[in-house]
């Protein structure tokens, strides 16, 4: 018999699924362990962080290869924490999700780009924000006390032009030459103080996107403030010119993101731009090694930094070690070419070639300092005491943990993509367990309500609904355990919600079928003929309705981020399995049921209920039809 | 008519409600509601959750003391770690493993959040790992939303193609526009009531799509069945046939909606009642609101819209004219038809009507007749005889 065959297929599916659950690869441990689905972090406790790739300049997502490379680097870094079962996966085309089950720890650093740059400190200023009352440092700079150069005020911009090739020269002039200023270039920006420098400074080397953003910022602060700021050749001396403070005030209200698009000189010269803003700039704001940059050390010292001449990629190996004074440092081994660059840089700094380093930025012994810049911040800025031909060290206020973390970041390399932490979730084990129980309780209540309703409405046929819900439940559970092991699907709270919602879908397909059946019986068919007829018609509706649910689940799963994925997967899975149950269980059962005597009894099926009133109405109805 | 009467007529699919005839009313009501919703978007906006504004939240076990004390302690801890940081909202949320206080705070960076957590743990005298914390950047909510919108667009495109293939373009257009109305009205309720919008809400919002169309498909399926070959006779206008379909599938729609709402109600009950906040509540609420709206739109908007569109189709237009002309003719007594004029709105199933009327054209009615004969032949005493007055008597 056909119904029997369909039931047999269903039985076979069950046997195979649960054989897989118990004996497929990865199944191990006792009876209970083998039945354990993979639970998400919100159910067992742990830490999860979502990192979004941000290219601060254009909004384009990174290439797939870059994202994968970044994922591997992050995975290495996470594994360096020694956490078991850490999971690092990409999601969509710009997210990386890190999950640490059972661990409660801060992951923010894992996603930092770790772009290491060595930059000479050209100028220093106070960046603590107390600059409205100017620190003594700015005073010497504008006064032009650096005697060797013809004009003090021209000098800084002079050093700008050869290095960054920023103003007029071609960008390819890389700036390897060091300090020797090209006077011709220096002439251009300095004399036409107000408008020209800002225009020329932002002319060529910056990408178009930045140019636009800069315009937007210019509008935001107002033309007056912008002109005043672009006219500055050194940190504004507010005591000398109090009116300047008012003019520059709007700069203090800029967001870090807006600050980041300003020209480096402006970031440095406007005292209202504090380290608080600078430290919060989006990642990779000062990544470009061919540009000068501004960065802060310890959140108070603001430095104008030269172009980067030694990069993180020049570092061969990095380790956290204790130095002679028993403080933690990160020792660096340079690669061959990197070593040479490093030696050149230290020579340049030691000799202060071209007097590139401003008075304000020199160390105690009158030598240039070299800042070790990691991402947006200066880690340390030691004075160069001699030409260094060997390995080097990064000193700073490290402890064992931070030194190791930095070494790890440098060792595994910088991320090819910059990330921002979008979401970080710490869930304690207690809270997780509470979520799990609440989710199961909600599922239980939902199922109970559906079953009560179906018994109330369809009487004994409710038992068919009940049985098929139990069957789909078992199928879904088996699939969860199996998929959890095979493709790493984790059940999250949102996933449980998806399952609960799918209960409705499953019950809906019953309603459609039974209502159809009712129609057929009302039209006077015997149960035996009504069941197949109702089935053919209901099948169409059920398939189209479920197809739409599945479609929405698939679309959600593909495009969405975060918890939505788990929800969509669960909803889709449960809906597909519902179709299986509909075809292989409900239909054959109903076919068999239709052969029994009890089928039409109002007390049993709820279907016959339409007949008594229908019969009393029959007279009128029939006559009407007969008239017709 | 008495209430029980309506219930049993509903049960039998013969409620005889005139939905299509009042379509101007529904369109008017829908238009007004949409206007209200849009005004509300513009004037009131939405109450956005932490995920859109950016911020931190901490979950502290309720065992540490009263909510007020806990909030003060957290405030102090925050103030000592970051200038200007404070608790924005504090609420008690339940859990089967014990209650929690959920404190939402202004945005902290990672170091501050960790320091604050350590400070809180010290102040409460508990272990730091007993405190859960979430940190969300302001961009996260908008990322989720933009992906969701992308999903919405793709889904609507796919589903339109599907509906065009499965039904026809007018049905697809009616279904999709009722879908949009559904979304706007749901969003309007959120805006008006001021329910909090979180990424979970957005997820749920997308899931409504599926359900809204589920109902519509159920009704349209019946409409399609009732109107197949409708132009072959002059009994019913398209609108009347569609109205009949609505009445016949009303119970089905009601049932599917109730049955779908029940588990969601469970979700909402646990999410809001027991846990107090979080994914379950957000999802449950938006699904509950959206599905309830979906039930109404599928009946009151989708089909009337379909009729509106269909009435512009030349073939249907001509057919409707013919039906009406015939009716006026009948009324004037110019022709004496095979059957007396039937008030079509509460007519019986067209299947029967067709069969009774002509029997000539091979219509839907033809097959059941044959089948029924088979059924009668094999009829059993219990299943057939007494309870099945159908076949023989009716014909």
TrEMBL record, chain A:
Forms a complex with SecF. Part of the essential Sec protein translocation apparatus which comprises SecA, SecYEG and auxiliary proteins SecDF. Other proteins may also be involved. It comes from Micromonospora haikouensis. The lineage of its organism: Bacteria, Bacillati, Actinomycetota, Actinomycetes, Micromonosporales. Part of the Sec protein translocase complex. Interacts with the SecYEG preprotein conducting channel. SecDF uses the proton motive force (PMF) to complete protein translocation after the ATP-dependent function of SecA. Belongs to the SecD/SecF family. SecD subfamily. One of its GO terms (biological process) is protein targeting. It is a multi-pass membrane protein. HAMAP family: SecD_B (MF_01463_B). Residues 419-593 form the Protein export membrane protein SecD/SecF C-terminal domain. It is found in: Cell membrane. It comes from the Bacteria. This is Protein translocase subunit SecD. Keywords: Cell membrane, Membrane, Protein transport, Translocation, Transmembrane, Transmembrane helix, Transport. Residues 68-121 form the Protein translocase subunit SecDF P1 domain. Residues 142-173, 181-209 have a biased composition (Low complexity). Residues 299-417 form the SecDF P1 head subdomain domain.
UniProtKB/TrEMBL annotation, chain B:
The chain crosses the membrane at residues 25-43, 148-165, 172-195, 201-220, 258-277, 283-309. It is found in: Cell membrane. Residues 358-395 are annotated as: Disordered. The keyword Transmembrane applies. Residues 358-375 have a biased composition (Low complexity). Keywords: Cell membrane, Membrane, Protein transport, Translocation, Transmembrane, Transmembrane helix, Transport. GO terms for cellular component: plasma membrane. One of its GO terms (molecular function) is protein-transporting ATPase activity. It is a multi-pass membrane protein. It holds the Pfam family Sec_GG. Residues 376-389 have a biased composition (Gly residues). InterPro entries: SecD/SecF_arch_bac (IPR022813), SecD/SecF_bac (IPR022645), SecD/SecF_CS (IPR022646), SecD_SecF_C (IPR048634), SecF_bac (IPR005665). The keyword Cell wall biogenesis/degradation does not apply. GO terms for biological process: intracellular protein transmembrane transport; protein targeting; protein transport by the Sec complex. Residues 123-311 form the Protein export membrane protein SecD/SecF C-terminal domain. NCBIfam families: transloc_SecF (TIGR00966). Belongs to the SecD/SecF family. SecF subfamily. PANTHER family: PROTEIN TRANSLOCASE SUBUNIT SECF, PROTEIN-EXPORT MEMBRANE PROTEIN SEC. Part of the Sec protein translocase complex. Interacts with the SecYEG preprotein conducting channel. SecDF uses the proton motive force (PMF) to complete protein translocation after the ATP-dependent function of SecA. Forms a complex with SecD. Part of the essential Sec protein translocation apparatus which comprises SecA, SecYEG and auxiliary proteins SecDF. Other proteins may also be involved. This is Protein-export membrane protein SecF. It comes from Micromonospora haikouensis.
